[in-house]
Amino acid sequence: MAGQSAEYQVARRYEAAGATLAARRWRGKAGEIDLILREGARVVFVEVKFSETLSRAAQMLGPRQIARLQASAQDFVAGEPSGQDTEMRFDLALVDAAGRVEIVENALCF
């Protein structure tokens, strides 16, 4: 299982929990966000990391990428009715080679 199918698997998990997929591989001025979902009024930004193990996947998110993701998320919510006051959450979805998925909610604070 590689990148795109990992994203699909993660999106299905969120949708099964009642979230609605708003965008996949959304690109803003600062860069790309793997998945953007809606849980009611809340916008959930999800970065999907795939590696041989879950722990190795978790290590793949560095400070520069975090800053880029935050800037992209702010770019996305600028188009929302509430703008920067939009309720947001940033999750990290870890996927290993066996297809196991671990979602870390609120991986970053906005």
UniProtKB/TrEMBL annotation:
<dbReference type="Pfam" id="PF02021">
    <property type="entry name" value="UPF0102"/>
</dbReference>
<comment type="similarity">
    <text>Belongs to the UPF0102 family.</text>
</comment>
<dbReference type="InterPro" id="IPR003509">
    <property type="entry name" value="UPF0102_YraN-like"/>
</dbReference>
<dbReference type="InterPro" id="IPR011856">
    <property type="entry name" value="tRNA_endonuc-like_dom_sf"/>
</dbReference>
<dbReference type="InterPro" id="IPR011335">
    <property type="entry name" value="Restrct_endonuc-II-like"/>
</dbReference>
<protein>
    <submittedName>
        <fullName>YraN family protein</fullName>
    </submittedName>
</protein>
